[in-house]
Design goal:
Layout: H1 2-14, H2 18-29, H3 35-45, H4 50-81, H5 95-115, H6 122-131, H7 136-165
């Protein structure tokens, strides 16, 4: 199913004019689990220069991730502002939240942000960190570093892949 999505995106974007392909990479980069890394890979394998494909995919991923982090921060503020009574001891966090909390205590915000794309989309990792109480400014900075680094890595890989098969 995921492969079909990538094939359809490739077919859609490859049929566009070069300037339209570049613009199409911005919303492609905003799609969870496609993000900057597969968006930049897609762009470079279509023949778009990495200096153009990577920033386009990164921009889409940054915009989408920052919007959900901001929304999660506002939601957390609203929930915690009205909470004067501590949480019930019987309440157990979800399995996902417990795993992220464990990773946060083990690796910190930088580690979770940099390693997060290996497990789950940045549009899920960032808001979860904020919901767990991580400082938003640190989450923004480290998610930015992660998104740019993964996008650059896969963009370069895509251009090397294209050079190897052509």
């Amino acid at each position: 199913m995921f492969q079909d999505l990538l094939i359809q995106l490739h077919a859609l974007v490859s049929g566009l004019e070069p300037w339209q392909q570049l613009l199409a990479l911005v919303p492609v980069g905003a799609i969870p689990f496609i993000e900057s890394y597969l968006g930049s890979f897609l762009g470079t394998t279509l023949g778009i220069h990495p200096a153009l494909a990577i920033p386009a995919a990164v921009l889409g991923n940054l915009l989408a991730t920052f919007v959900v982090i901001a929304l999660a921060g506002r939601a957390r503020d609203a929930v915690t502002a009205g909470r004067s009574i501590p949480r019930e001891k019987d309440e157990r966090p979800s399995r996902f939240r417990a795993k992220v909390a464990s990773a946060l205590s083990k690796y910190g915000v930088p580690g979770v942000c940099l390693l997060g794309p290996l497990i789950v989309a940045s549009q899920i990792t960032g808001p979860t960190l904020v919901a767990l109480g991580a400082a938003r400014s640190r989450v923004y900075v480290w998610m930015s570093v992660s998104i740019v680094a993964w996008g650059a890595l896969f963009g370069v890989f895509g251009s090397l892949f294209l050079a190897a098969i052509v």
